[in-house]
Predict the structure.
Amino acid sequence: MGLKSIKKYCMNWGYKILIIYLSFIIMMLSMVYVSSRQTNEMQDENYYAKELAYQSVIDGKNNLNALSDKLTIVCANDSVKIRIPKSAITNISEGTIYFLRPSNKKYDVNEILVVDNIGEQLISKSRFKKGYYIVKINWKSNSMIYYAEQKFNME
């Protein structure tokens, strides 16, 4: 087997450069295609106004942390059970529960906080899709602001 037969089976260096350039172009076009298919949803349209009012969130977290009982969120049979600390359930004047789904805004769930006499509220599991949520709860009780934010995995 001579030198000519080896050159016959090996590629010219010009072809190798052409293959490298073509593979780079294909890779760049595929990245442009994938990035154009991504959504750029904001989690909250009113983020600027909420940022200005963030001091009330800090105060609400501090007020909640000062309580001896803790807020709990658990799955129970067909519902999600939210339990507010007993010392913070008297005279609740306003409150909201917001289940934020980071992956898709259309699966967010918004509820008004209406607890029973032991501080529990049940929300049907049928309103949720399985997956990861961020739960934001805020309420006002006896003119004190309370705020909680927890990660929650819907099973």
Summary: The chain has a mean pLDDT of 86. Helices lie at 3-9, 13-36, 47-52, 54-65. The first strand starts at residue 72 and ends at 76.
